[in-house]
Amino acid sequence: MLQRIQSIWLLLAATFVLISLKVSFFAGNIVSSPEAIDKLYQEVNGLYSITNNILTITVGVMAFISIFLYGNRKLQMRLIYVAMAVELLLMVNYEMIIKKFSEGNYSIGSILQLLVMICFVLAQRGIRKDNKIIEESNRLR
Questions:
Q1: Of the candidates 50, 61, 52, 51, the residue with the CA atom closest to the CA atom of residue 24
Q2: Phi, psi angle pair for 13, to nearest 5°
Q3: DSSP letters along 119-139, please?
Q4: Closest to 67 measured CA to CA, from 10, 18, 124, 118
Q5: Contact, 26 vs 45, CB < 8 A?
Q6: pLDDT at position 2, please?
Q7: Mean pLDDT of 77-87
Q8: Between the CA of residue 59 and those of 2, 41, 110, what are the distances in Å?
Q9: pTM summary value
Q10: Which residue would you say has higher pLDDT here, 54 or 43?
Q11: What's the whole-number average pLDDT of the chain?
Q12: How far is CA 44 from CA 60, 82, 100, in A?
């Protein structure tokens, strides 16, 4: 199971997602109303809203479950595709939240989200290589 490189990539993706629950994606000031002078400092992370929480946990669980689907590579590939789509949806959700801020900066959590996508792509690549090896061995029989 963990001898395969895609399992390592999926484990890293799950770890990065769980870290992103606490590490902020964006930090800055949000204005409570247009005429207000007061600015409220907030950090956006996986626990910022219920939508972020659900999407983040869903991506992490999908990445973790797909580690154990090494016997069914087709299902593993599909689950990774779905996890990538949910991760993109999460990134879009982050960007929609960031539009509410008047000023701020991206934090280390934004890099973690990109690393999750990179890990998913590398896991897919490993699964494709396994499929190619199986096809070649079947052809030799």
A1: 52
A2: -60, -45
A3: HHHHHHHHHHHHHHHHHHHHH
A4: 10
A5: no
A6: 46
A7: 91
A8: 20, 27, 15
A9: 0.79
A10: 54
A11: 82
A12: 18, 24, 11
Residue tagged 């934004």 (tokens): 110
Q: Helix or strand or coil: residue 40?
A: strand
69: three-class secondary structure by DSSP: coil
d(Cα 123, Cα 9) in Å, to the nearest integer? 5
Give the C-alpha separation, 120 to 101, whole Å: 30
Query: For residues 33 and 14, what is the distance between their CA atoms, to the nearest angstrom?
Result: 38
Long-range pairs for 123-130: beta carbons < 8 A, 24 or more residues apart: 123/6, 123/9, 123/10, 123/13, 123/66, 123/80, 124/6, 124/77, 124/80, 124/81, 125/6, 126/4, 126/5, 126/6, 126/9, 127/6, 127/73, 127/76, 127/77, 127/80, 130/4, 130/6, 130/73
**Are 65 and 58 contacting, i.e. CB atoms less than 8 angstroms apart?**
no
Q: Which two tokens stand for residue 22?
A: 């606490």
